[in-house]
DNA sequence: CTTGACCTTCCAATGATGGGAAGGCCTATC
DNA sequence: GATAGGCCTTCCCATCATTGGAAGGTCAAG
């Protein structure tokens, strides 16, 4: 199977397959005499593993760890679980952060008449007049930006 | 005021101030005879505006639109409100997506014994045995990855 | 044997930010 | 007035995952 077919069957683009090979996430594929990469069913399964992990928001580095565990027949499921829970925790952190943004924006937008007048609490807040909005919404220690 | 002080007062790093100038988000700063950038109180206020908008998750392109409205004395608050609501909608979309990831991962992690045995539904799911998890959780059209 | 679809490598760009080097400027201290 | 060290300047590179494209080789069907 060449790279195009592997891409179709795995849902990972050919570009990304080459990239993953280049960065060492996956081993180098076999080659035909003319230099084309060849893929087996196992390779496609690995690519689908990667695709699925990406869909779950894992970074490529974490996927490397997952792959290592996947290949390790004597792995401990605790190690896998720990990676998953770290991922959950990271996602939850980002969700909380975004929810705080939404709350602030929603509060500001509700105070905005939304007509043809220029007065707008949204701009006023961005300008720095923070008294118009509850400070607890966005000045907490949770922001990592 | 030179760029270091402007950075300190605005919370935007000197690097980013130069970058914003280079990309046209902010107008070119004045210069001293020896080439140093100079900033006024108004400039710092604009930088703080940018900083605050970044904290609310606006992309730089959207901040450009916000700044244009901020400068426009005859703006309509409806335009500002629309930008804010688009931002809210975008954030909510991402939050939903992440919540679906968390739900899937949480479900998988709960099925994982987390001990020294190798059996692990997390890996099994990543491998492609999607029957272990409700497909509606993550196969919807909302994914933009 | 040509055509079109595929493959190869290499280079570049995205968006927002940080790091660093090489060199110039400013200010305080001696 | 010289010097030190802290700031400034520009320029280049790196990140992270992904896409795009160009230039050129290969394969399969007509």
TrEMBL record, chains A, B:
<keyword id="KW-0805">Transcription regulation</keyword>
<keyword id="KW-0238">DNA-binding</keyword>
<dbReference type="InterPro" id="IPR047057">
    <property type="entry name" value="MerR_fam"/>
</dbReference>
<dbReference type="Pfam" id="PF13411">
    <property type="entry name" value="MerR_1"/>
</dbReference>
<dbReference type="GO" id="GO:0045893">
    <property type="term" value="P:positive regulation of DNA-templated transcription"/>
</dbReference>
<dbReference type="InterPro" id="IPR000551">
    <property type="entry name" value="MerR-type_HTH_dom"/>
</dbReference>
<dbReference type="InterPro" id="IPR011789">
    <property type="entry name" value="CueR"/>
</dbReference>
<dbReference type="InterPro" id="IPR009061">
    <property type="entry name" value="DNA-bd_dom_put_sf"/>
</dbReference>
<protein>
    <submittedName>
        <fullName>Transcriptional regulator, MerR family</fullName>
    </submittedName>
</protein>
<dbReference type="GO" id="GO:0003677">
    <property type="term" value="F:DNA binding"/>
</dbReference>
<dbReference type="GO" id="GO:0003700">
    <property type="term" value="F:DNA-binding transcription factor activity"/>
</dbReference>
<dbReference type="GO" id="GO:0005737">
    <property type="term" value="C:cytoplasm"/>
</dbReference>
<keyword id="KW-0804">Transcription</keyword>
<keyword id="KW-0963">Cytoplasm</keyword>
<dbReference type="GO" id="GO:0005507">
    <property type="term" value="F:copper ion binding"/>
</dbReference>
<feature type="domain" description="HTH merR-type">
    <location>
        <begin position="1"/>
        <end position="69"/>
    </location>
</feature>
């Amino acid at each position: 199977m060449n790279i195009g077919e592997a891409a179709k069957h795995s849902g990972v683009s050919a570009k990304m397959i080459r990239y993953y090979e280049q960065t060492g996430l996956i081993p180098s594929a076999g080659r035909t005499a003319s230099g084309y990469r060849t893929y087996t069913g196992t390779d496609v399964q690995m690519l689908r593993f990667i695709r699925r992990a990406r869909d779950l928001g894992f970074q490529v580095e974490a996927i490397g760890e997952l792959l290592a565990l996947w290949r390790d027949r004597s792995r401990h499921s605790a190690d896998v679980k720990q990676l998953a829970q770290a991922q959950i925790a990271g996602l939850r952190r980002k969700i909380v952060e975004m929810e705080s943004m939404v709350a602030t924006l929603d509060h500001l937008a509700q105070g905005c008449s939304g007509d043809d007048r220029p007065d707008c609490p949204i701009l006023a807040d961005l300008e720095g007049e923070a008294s118009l909005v509850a400070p607890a919404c966005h000045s907490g220690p949770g922001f990592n930006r």
